[in-house]
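Why should sequence recovery work at all? Because a backbone constrains its sequence more than one might expect. Tight turns favour small or flexible residues, buried strands favour hydrophobic ones, and helices have their own preferences. The token representation captures these environments compactly. In the example below, the structure is given first.
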């Protein structure tokens, strides 16, 4: 009996020992797995930048495949292959801007010229100025504007997303966004709009002392018919906010933020401002573009920026249509100023708690320094700057100036 009990105790001790060995083995395997995983850098935070919105970032192994190897670290200076892959993404953004700029100008000019030719055929006694005035005051130019920018904004955005292998659905997966947040952003944008307006007036006063004007937009008497007003309202309040955000804060911000979110914010803001072709709108679009890009990063979606863009455009459209005067103007101005003051406080609060992403030394060598070495991006930047200068000095865009020079050369 004692011998039987001793054997049972021995078996129990062996079983307990085997169980402990199995438990320790699993624990060692788990610790080894965790160690290997901790040795692999975060693919969405390869630079270890705590100020960035990592959920917004794409997998950086598309640029630096070695990142998948345990213990790999991003070097301070990008190597040839990493620089080449990164520059390829920047070129996609650059080509998108080039095609967008040229197509919008050429298509609009071509459609307007064709319609003008058809109207001339039906009204041979009407001169060019009368035909242009008719097209401008009716819904024709408004419709051309909406159609052209709908095609170019959406088309170029989809091409850029396709080439960069970015899914359209990834641009609308909104996080942590509420009605209260939307109100905060809209009032902050209102403050930016008011301040930009004051600065624009001051700059225009300086230009007028030298015989120039920054107010180069020929909008007086445009779309005065019911149909024209309706088309302009649809374009300004719906089509433009959605399609422009898809292009600038959707495709372009994704591409330019591949290695440096801060560079992406300011690059898209600059090109967004230049795309408007005049200083007053550049100031507004640039400053507003920074806010729109920031909230896009924060919420991983273009939905918040679309809402804010719609709010600003609708506000401008409504004020322009109402044209308040006298006491009504005083009341409207007072309401806007109070709302802008609230917006200033909300903007300060937002910027205090949500600072723009900073840049690490390694990221600074992969942002502007790489993009500026691309001839394409530098070229389109200076072309748009030249277009802005031509509008101010000659009161016509660069395409019209070139066309006039060709006409003079052919007729000389």
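From this structural description, the recovered sequence reads:
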């Amino acid at each position: 009996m004692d011998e039987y009990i001793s054997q049972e105790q021995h078996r129990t001790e062996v079983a307990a020992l085997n169980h402990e060995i199995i438990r320790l083995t699993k624990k060692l395997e788990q610790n080894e797995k965790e160690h290997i995983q901790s040795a692999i850098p975060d693919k969405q935070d390869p630079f270890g930048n705590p100020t960035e919105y990592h959920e917004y970032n794409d997998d950086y192994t598309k640029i630096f495949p070695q990142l998948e190897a345990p213990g790999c670290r991003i070097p301070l200076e990008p190597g040839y292959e990493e620089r080449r892959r990164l520059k390829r993404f920047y070129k996609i953004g650059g080509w998108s801007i080039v095609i967008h700029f040229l197509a919008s100008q050429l298509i609009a000019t071509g459609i307007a010229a064709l319609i003008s030719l058809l109207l001339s055929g039906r009204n041979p006694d009407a001169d060019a100025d009368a035909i242009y005035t008719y097209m401008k005051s009716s819904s024709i130019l408004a419709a051309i504007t909406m159609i052209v920018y709908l095609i170019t904004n959406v088309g170029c955005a989809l091409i850029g997303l396709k080439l960069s292998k970015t899914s359209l659905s990834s641009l609308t997966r909104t996080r942590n966004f509420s009605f209260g947040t939307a109100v905060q952003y809209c009032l902050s944008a209102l403050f930016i709009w008011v301040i930009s307006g004051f600065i624009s007036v001051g700059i225009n006063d300086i230009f007028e002392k030298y015989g120039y004007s920054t107010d180069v937009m020929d909008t007086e008497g445009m779309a005065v018919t019911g149909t024209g007003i309706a088309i302009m309202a649809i374009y300004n309040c719906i089509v433009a906010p959605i399609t422009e955000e898809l292009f600038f804060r959707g495709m372009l911000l994704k591409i330019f933020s591949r290695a440096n979110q801060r560079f992406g914010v300011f690059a898209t803001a600059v090109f967004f401002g230049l795309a408007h072709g005049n200083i007053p709108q550049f100031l507004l679009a640039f400053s507003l573009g920074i806010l729109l890009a920031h909230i896009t990063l924060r919420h991983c979606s273009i939905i918040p920026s679309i809402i804010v863009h719609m709010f600003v455009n609708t506000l401008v459209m409504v004020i322009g249509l109402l044209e308040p005067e006298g006491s009504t103007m005083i009341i409207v101005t007072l309401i806007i100023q109070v709302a802008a003051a609230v917006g200033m406080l909300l903007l300060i609060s937002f910027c205090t708690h949500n600072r723009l992403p900073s840049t690490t030394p390694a990221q600074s060598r992969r942002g502007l320094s790489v993009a500026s070495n691309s001839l394409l991006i530098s070229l389109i930047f200076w072309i748009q700057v030249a277009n802005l200068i031509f509008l101010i000095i000659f009161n016509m865009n660069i395409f019209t100036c070139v066309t006039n020079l060709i006409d003079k050369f052919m007729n000389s």
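A few observations help interpret the result. The radius of gyration is 29 Å.
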